[in-house]
Amino acid sequence: SEDVFVFMTNEFFDWIQIYQYIFYIFLYPLWNTPSVFAFCHNIYNFFSIFNTIYTLYNYTVYVVVFYICIVIIFLIFVDIFYVSLCFKRKKFTVLWPLRILRSFVSYAVTVMFITISETLTDMLNCQPNDNGELVMGNYSYVVCFTGMHVVHSVFAVVFVILFLGLAIIVALNFFENRVSSSSLEARSTSNSGVSFILCKMIIQFSTIFFIDPFYLSTTLFVMTFILVYFFVVEDPYYNQTVAKFYKVMSMMLFWSATILFASNFLNNFGFKNGIIVWGIGSPFIVFIAMSFSQKTLNNLINSQLKFQTAREITDHTTMILLMIKNQRNNITVY
Q: What is the pTM of this model?
């Protein structure tokens, strides 16, 4: 069985990184509370390894880290090719590439996803300076799309696409869908994992190409609504603790994005207390998310009813026993 503490810690750090976009610097006008905004902005940036890289080091160090990320992605694909070739030949000379693929890739597309993708996409983060030249947002002394920056940008585009494709493939295929599985992340569909990957990438790109608060907040609102649908409405996770964790994180993210989106319109009428409404409403959102019951009955109805193997019978029976256990613990569970 998986270590619950390690799993929940990894997932927490994966989710908390996306919360940094709620207090993104270009959304400052919507919060209208400088001290509170700065406090929350600094807290969430603490969990961003990428921000540490460009804040403490110069452009040369950034480029070195940039190509380290590219090498990591390249080695992952080489490892995938080797493991696939071994499976095809049904012969493994050594097993360590398989172990690396199983452990490291899961971290690369979860906890390290935003760090790696931000490092790559920031090479494309170019903004006009006072002279009308396009310069890098975090390194204003580097002119974009000139000299070696052109080469760096090409590598950035290619490997961002490869990395995103890798993450989606992993989310689509590498998950446990058996109810009887001991995996804490066992779920009925892959929709939640894929939507989370796409959400992170789309929000990242929006912070590069859309610096207007309205477009940023609208993107956050739409993407977090999609997360709520796949994590809360579909409710695909079998483990109750894991399911509640994802519900809390996705609903809090949606609540934050909703406040930002509404502030676009309410600020025109003198509304300046978005951060206060957010703070007051947050405990209620957490309570509502924790109160949602699992959609075990729907999962049961959608499960395989035409049994072909002993495993399918076991899974079906386990689902029924899970329903009975939940009903005893909470009479509102159906």
A: 0.78
